[in-house]
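Why show two proteins at once? Because comparison is the fastest way to build intuition. When a single record is shown, students tend to memorize it. When two are placed side by side, the eye starts asking what differs. So, the first record is below.
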Amino acid sequence: MAAALQGVTVLDLSRILAGPWSTQNLADLGADVIKVERPGQGDDTRSWGPPFVQGTDPSTKDAAYFFCCNRGKRSVTLDFTIEQGREVLIELVRKADVLVENYKVGGLKKYGLDYDTLSKINPKLIYCSITGFGQTGPYAARPGYDALVQAMGGLMSITGESDSTPGGGPQKVGVAVVDVLTGLYATSAILAALYHRTQSGQGQYIDIALLDVQVAALANQASNYVLGGQVPQRIGSAHPSIVPYQPFACADGHVMLAIGNDTQFAAFCRAADCEGLAQDERFRNNALRVQHREALVDILHERMGLKTVDQWCQLATDNGFPCGPINTIDRVFADPQVQARELRVSVPSEGYGTVDLVASPMRFSGTPISYDMAPPLLGEHTEAVLAELGLDEKAVANLRSAKAI
């Protein structure tokens, strides 16, 4: 079957995570993603290890980090700070549908690779810039990284135990969630721009900022402030608006109890042999449970410790309330549901042998995602892509001699 984005060409000038996460999504959807990397060095994350993945050539290895967001792409080494390299990139732009970059604001303008310049060469080009703080505003020139934006965007103020609890204080999330969300927003914006182009024939510029994404992703916590005037606080893994919705210690481990409505709470109480709690005037609906959070949680801590993790999970399945184990990553990939959904895939690679990757969560009935290309070796496709531009062996040799590739 034809892939959803078959025929779409993407130039990926981004590095690290947010941009590559977006372009990997586009590659999963069938786009031809050409990853433009610095000769001899490549994407910074190739060296962000250990752990490393050893290539079939003993002299080659790349960090596992790189493999999380670069499958399905072709790697071209190209130094566009050299005029010969810039000329090659311009030729790639002529044939491209999308360009994604995450250089500092104005960083590509000095090379004539900004949107205003390139849109004159290719008016249909969709040009997506990803930065820490956006193209405007007093912070525009600042570099931005995920952890910094988690802090500045409020996420760390609501993550972690409260200051009054031992070990309390601000914490970042255990994965670069702002980068990942930014990549997803960038993907959505690019797809919308591609659809708009089918109607207008025109490309456009997309400005995506990590800080904007983080503020938008505060979701209900932001609404609690802008509509209710309440400044959210850190409360550990509990929920500010739902009770009980937090981890509990069991006889042999921990579970996450996530009661979303009064029906589920009643079902839990029946299963836990404490049916009277559902009728207690303090706990009979969620608003009251939030009001009397401490009293209810104290009761449940004692009750939950009477059974094992497996016993509580089985009771949840039998009685229809949400409860699950707090899995380590190895247990995640051993989970029968994760295995049934085939979230771990083996992808062949000439450069690395067969590598195991995490599958895309997108599932299509008509244009399924295929896993044919592992993340590329640095410069693995340079000669093939240059040949597609019509460059012969002599021209390629000249580029090498000039250190443009």
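Second record. Ask yourself what differs from the first in the token line.
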Amino acid sequence: MDDALLKAMVRFWVPIYKCFTFNEVDMVPSIKEYSTFLHYDFRDPLRIY
């Protein structure tokens, strides 16, 4: 995993709203984007993410 990416994700994450905030713009990644960021395959249909 990319440490710089992980640090940036933690820095901009707003836990109250469960999204990322960049200059007052909210962004919520999709499961596919999380899969790319974290290098993890989220295709298990029986698992709740």
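One difference worth noting in the second protein: The beta strands are 13-14, 19-22, 25-27.
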